[in-house]
Amino acid sequence: MADEEINGDTDDIQHDKDKTQKKTAKHDSGVADLEKVTDYAEEKEISSQDISGALSLIGDRRNKEAAERLEKEKELQKVSVRKDDIELIVKEMEISRILAERTLREHRGDVVAALTTLTN
């Protein structure tokens, strides 16, 4: 009878080992599946020269945009507008004087076009 208990315990231990191995196998297969769908990106070393080049490119682009804005503002200042037209737009549209004047200048003093733009 003692032999039966020992064999029974051994079977239980063997059964537990089998369950553990099955769980480990399931876990490993999940990891393998995850590795299949995961993208691996190579790590690259970024050189300081690349960074400097990118920063100078960004700086040049900003300077160019600032120059374009300044040029546009100069062109808008050259456009003459009547004070009566500005007052009309401010009164009718209930907007600030600065916005009314800017819109009127953008439309080269054309009150109808400026009002149309502000209503849309």
UniProtKB/TrEMBL annotation:
Q: Where do the Nascent polypeptide-associated complex subunit alpha-like UBA domain residues begin and end?
A: 79-119
A biological process (GO) annotation for this entry? protein stabilization
Q: Where is the composition biased (Acidic residues)?
A: 1-11
Biased composition, Basic and acidic residues: where in the chain? Answer: 12-30
What Pfam families has UniProt attached to this entry? UBA_HYPK
Q: Which CDD domains match?
A: UBA_HYPK
The ranges of region (Disordered) come to 1-30
| Stated name of the protein | Huntingtin-interacting protein K
